[in-house]
Each structure stands twice: as structure tokens, then as C-alpha cells.
Amino acid sequence: MLQSTRILLIIGGGIAAYKSLDLIRRLQERGAQVRCILTAAAQHFVTPLAVGALAGERAYTDLFDPQSEFDVGHIRLARDSDLIVVAPATADLLAKLAGGHADDLATAVLLATDQPILVAPAMNPQMWAAKATQRNVAQLMADGARIVGPNAGEMAERGEAGIGRMAEPLEIVAAVEAIMRRTGPLTGKRMLVTSGPTHEPIDPVRFIANRSSGKQGHAIAAAAAAAGADVVLVSGPVNLPDPPGLSVVKIETARQMLEAVDQALPVDVAVFAAAVADWRAQRPSETKVKKQPGRTPTLALTENPDILSTIAHRSAGRPRLVIGFAAETDHVIANAKAKLAKKGCDWIVANDVSPGTGIMGGDANTIHLISAAGVESWPPQSKDDVARALVERIATALEDTKR
Ligand code: CTP
């Protein structure tokens, strides 16, 4: 469960560097975004090309590389991550880290970060046992770094064995997951997210639906889980994988969604991102409606329950924070303000879903956050970034209401 977690992997110069290639994969399989830095020594063991190809973006190598300074730079590399993993952490890298050196990209980033650091040492057993190394490791632990391994076993050098093997990729992943669980701002909080469209049957083969992809709702659920929340995602039919590490309840109709939402309560926060069908067929046919020459059937509709409004207006068991979405094609802010009042929620995330915006079904989103405090317009960004920013705001709001 590392969905949306941004991991910066620093690969040091040791034979165990080949295992870091596997580590990139294992982290990605759990939904993490992995960026990599290679030290100069690491490049004797694995190439930036191989690492970049696996990570899906170029690997960083140089403190004074004009290109990387231009597009990210070492300060941003340090800040734009949730966790830094040093694997393999050589004796030399541990010494530099313990001493606060910053003479290459890896050490400069490690010094500039305020995020958790996990080191996976790998070295010859005698180097590991050396007093200097043990002093450096003790210093790093006192400074707040976490450690995984090293393990006992065979070394790369023939006939050498002892403590010094780098932890296996899956052990490193488990350590990353444990750290991310502990440090989330929503740890201990329960959150409900609705996502996707609903399908309202007309007959056994036809239904009323809409263009919602579920991307924004799923991203919010994943970001909340990455922030430590215990998340229940109630989802209509979507073409998306289940985000790992949270409970997903799959429904089809609005009425089933309301039932699933009711079962998920009580929660601290509820985010209603689903595009619920406003109407359903009054009397869905149990058999397929057949074409009859000269007769066009009429479809009688009836209104669906408004899930957001139902939950937001509850006097008992209302979540502390109820957040709705407003999908609008015109007068976005005015309509969204009216929706905030009518639905009784605390915040509305409003977006313009006119066909030209590409928001419905797309990967980017431009939103306005509307609350009693006013309107905030956010710059265009990816749905994952919107999700992370929203989750941060939720965490802050919960902190504030506690006081
Ligand atoms: N919503 C809901 N149940 C419904 C309809 C909407 O929970 N039956 C929620 C959505 O999840 C969203 C918010 O209400 O958080 C607003 O949805 P939207 O479709 O924009 O608003 P509507 O209430 O349907 O109003 P309109 O279609 O008239 O704009």
C-alpha cells in the first residue's frame, strides 16, 4: 500500500546495486512513484539508462548538471518526496551522511531533506563491523534515520560470509510501508470516499450512466490511504484497478451506493466524488425491451436519493468533515456556492466539466475549493496532485477542529 507515495531512491556504489533495480519494480507494483539518484560509484555497477528505463524517468547523477538543476534541482528532489531510501548504503555513503557532507547530488539531497530517510546498508562484513561504521550508524539512528538490514549470509566475494548483505527488496519494501504508515497525517482517521458513475438499469442490457472515470475519487482514496487513513472506497463501475491497502465496496446503482455509504459510517471525513445518476428508470424492465415497428418506448424517470445531502444533513453520526463535488458546465463558482448551501456540506470541490476542458475522463483537473471561508482557485494540476493537496487540507482541518 504505497499508492501515490513519492520515493526517492539513492543508489550507492556496491555490488548490491543490482538488487535496487528489482526494488524499483517492487515499489512501483505497490503504487509508489520512484525517482532515482545514482552516486558516481553506483554507475560502475548499474547504468543511469537502466535505472531511468525502470523508473520511467531519467535518473539523476550530478549536483551541477545544468539540465537537472533547471528542471528539478537538488532542493526540489529533496522536498518532492515522501521518503528517501538509500539502497545500497555503502560504508562511505553512511560516513558522509553521518558527517553531513554535501559534495555530490546524493549527499546534498540527503542533507537538504526533512523527510524520513531509510538506509539499507550493504558492505563487506569487516567494513560493517568496523568501529567507524558502527559509530556512523549509531549517529544516523540518533539523527532519526531508519535502517533495514544488513542481513547475514554469503557475500559477493567468493568464500566471504557474515553480516553485510543488503536486505532483500521485499524486506526494504516492508520497511518503507511501515514507515509510511507511521508518519501519515491521517493515521487513526477513518475516511469514506465515493467514486465513479452509477449505472441505473433500464432493462437487463441497458442502463443510464455518465462519463465519470472515477480517476479523481480513486486518487483521493489512494492519497488518503497513503497519508495513513483507514479508507473505505465505495465505487461505481470503473475501469481502474483497486488502489491497494484500502477497502473497496463495488456497487452499481445510486441506491446501492447509499446503502454502502451507510454501512461504512461512522467516519471522520466523507468525500463524495462520485457522479451519481440523478434519476433512474421508474420501472426497469425485467426482460429486454424489444423493438416494435412504429412504437418508440418512453422512459419514465424517478429521482435518486441524494447521498451527499442525506449524510450532510444527518444530526446524529454526521462525519466531522463532509466534502462534496460540483461538476458544472457554466457559472461554476456561483452554482457550486449554491450547492454548498443546499447540500449542507462543509466544502465543495468544484470543477468545470465542459467538453473542451478534457477534465471528465482526463488525468488533469482544475478545481475551486469552496467553503464558508470563501473560494480558492487552484492551478491546473494532475488529479493525483489535486488528491494529495486535498488530503493535506483535510489533515489540517481535522487538526484545527480538534483544538
Ligand atoms: N451527489 C450525491 N447523490 C446524488 C447526486 C449527487 O451524493 N444523487 C453528490 C455528488 O457525489 C457530488 C455532489 O452531490 O459530490 C454534486 O453532484 P452534481 O452532479 O454536481 O450535482 P447535482 O446535485 O446532481 O446537481 P445538478 O446535476 O443539478 O448540477
Please explain how this structure is put together.
There is one protein chain. The chain is of the alpha/beta class and 403 residues long. It has 2 domains: 6-183, 3-Layer(aba) Sandwich (Rossmann fold); 190-402, 3-Layer(aba) Sandwich (Rossmann fold), CATH 3.40.50. The chain is 36% helix and 23% strand. It has an 8-stranded mixed β-sheet with strand order 12-11-8-13-16-17-19-20, with helices on both faces. A 5-stranded parallel β-sheet has the order 2-1-3-4-5, sandwiched between helices. The chain is elongated and about 85 Å long. The chain starts with 5 loop residues before the first strand and ends with a helix. It binds cytidine-5'-triphosphate. Cytidine-5'-triphosphate binds next to helix 12 and strand 16.
Which characteristics define this entry?
eight-stranded mixed β-sheet, alpha/beta, single chain, 403 residues, 14 helices, binds cytidine-5'-triphosphate, Rossmann fold, 23% strand, five-stranded parallel β-sheet
Offer a quick outline of the entry.
This protein is α/β, with parallel strands linked by helices. It has two domains: 6-183, Rossmann fold (3-Layer(aba) Sandwich), CATH 3.40.50.1950; 190-402, CoaB-like (Rossmann fold, 3-Layer(aba) Sandwich), CATH 3.40.50.
What would you call the structural class? alpha/beta
Order the strands across the largest sheet as they lie in space. 12-11-8-13-16-17-19-20
Number of strands: 21
Strand content: 15-25%
Ranges where pLDDT stays below 50 over 5 or more residues in a row are: none
Separate helix tally: 14
What would you say the CATH architecture of the largest domain is?
A: 3-Layer(aba) Sandwich
Q: Provide the CATH topology of the largest domain.
A: Rossmann fold
In total, the number of domains comes to 2
Radius of gyration: 26 Å
Shape from CA axes? Answer: elongated
Helical percentage? 25-40%
* Chain-averaged pLDDT: 91
* CATH class placement of the largest domain: Alpha Beta
CATH level-4 homologous superfamily of the largest domain? CoaB-like
Task: Calculate the terminal CA-CA distance, rounded to whole Å.
Answer: 31 Å
Largest sheet: number of strands, sense, barrel closure = 8 strands, mixed
Instruction: Spell out which ligands are present.
Output: cytidine-5'-triphosphate
